[in-house]
Amino acid sequence: HQKILGGFRRTSDKLGENLTGLFTKAALDKATLDEIEEALIASDLGPATASRVRERLADERYDKGLDEAEVREIVAQEVAKILAPVAKPLEIEAFPRPQVILVIGVNGSGKTTTIAKLAHYLQEQDYSVMLVAGDTFRAAAIGQLKVWADRIGVPIISGKEGGDAASLVFEGVKQGTATGIDVLIVDTAGRLQNKAGLMDELSKIRRVLGRLNPAAPHDVVLVLDATTGQNALNQIEVFRDTAGVTGLVMTKLDGTARGGVLVAAAEKYGLPVHAIGVGEGLDDLRPFDAVEVARAIAG
Ligand code: GDP
């Protein structure tokens, strides 16, 4: 819990900063309400949330004046309302095995680290995990995933740089089935700059998977870097349209004042948020708890 509070400290500090100056005002007039709404939007909280906070302040506080604790409480409640419906842990179904999770995201988003954290988390829940190094465009990505696989002790299917990702996935499902693996986590190339290439590659992976198991992939998890703020929202849009995203993991919430973007994303896209990344270590993937995160953001 401390880690999550710490993770959002910058976001809540930023919110406080944006609101500072307003709290010295005695009256909660229209101009002040406008300023509060703008301050919330400037903190990346999303226009619908900002407008609901404004309405509630107008309804509940107009006669009483402005009180910092009261504003934060209302922000926390409204943020929790937006986040609660999207807080959904990744569910591993019993059949068929292996469950296949495709992990997508632009380079640098924290994709590789998230795969390692997720594999570690699943291992702790007694699932057997296998990785597929499907980001064959970057030799570094293959190498890094192998290092993680070694460290946490899970098998990995990998090939050469420039190799065919779909055949690695095929091999992964084959070996995973033969050895009774519960979950196959597939890294993929995050080439947003080449949308056609990205689509081709992902649809080829899907075709191969579909032939082996019509339900696969069971999840398509998009990894987003919170420090990129509004840019993360654009990425959701592009990947949703090209890859059929089923859920999100937002990383680097410990290193940014832009954690509010999680709220904007929930508001705009309503995609499940499976977990959040609050550090570089294996244990720094946290379940996404709407109330806890809302309190941490509101400060
Ligand atoms: P990829 O290129 O998307 O595979 O990204 P990586 O997994 O290699 O991560 C890029 C950098 O971000 C690495 O230095 C990671 O240690 C770091 N990183 C990943 N997730 C987090 C996180 O939740 N918090 C912090 N502070 N750093 C992270």
UniProtKB/TrEMBL annotation:
CDD domains: FtsY. One of its GO terms (molecular function) is signal recognition particle binding. Signal peptide: none annotated. GTP binds at residues 105-112, 187-191, 251-254. It holds the Pfam family SRP54_N. InterPro entries: AAA+_ATPase, P-loop_NTPase, Signal_recog_particl_SRP54_hlx, SR_rcpt_FtsY, SRP/SRP_N, SRP54_GTPase_dom, SRP54_N_sf. Its EC number is 3.6.5.4. It is found in: Cell inner membrane; Cell membrane; Cytoplasm. GO terms for cellular component: cytoplasm; plasma membrane. Residues 4-83 form the Signal recognition particle SRP54 helical bundle domain. Residues 98-299 form the SRP54-type proteins GTP-binding domain. Its main location: membrane. It is an enzyme of class 3 (hydrolase). GO terms for biological process: SRP-dependent cotranslational protein targeting to membrane. Residues 97-244 form the AAA+ ATPase domain. It is a peripheral membrane protein. Coiled coil: none annotated. Gene3D superfamilies: P-loop containing nucleotide triphosphate hydrolases, Signal recognition particle SRP54, nucleotide-binding domain. Keywords: Cell membrane, Cytoplasm, GTP-binding, Hydrolase, Membrane, Nucleotide-binding, Receptor. Part of the signal recognition particle protein translocation system, which is composed of SRP and FtsY. SRP is a ribonucleoprotein composed of Ffh and a 4.5S RNA molecule. Involved in targeting and insertion of nascent membrane proteins into the cytoplasmic membrane. Acts as a receptor for the complex formed by the signal recognition particle (SRP) and the ribosome-nascent chain (RNC). Interaction with SRP-RNC leads to the transfer of the RNC complex to the Sec translocase for insertion into the membrane, the hydrolysis of GTP by both Ffh and FtsY, and the dissociation of the SRP-FtsY complex into the individual components. HAMAP family: FtsY (MF_00920). This is Signal recognition particle receptor FtsY. It comes from Edaphosphingomonas laterariae.
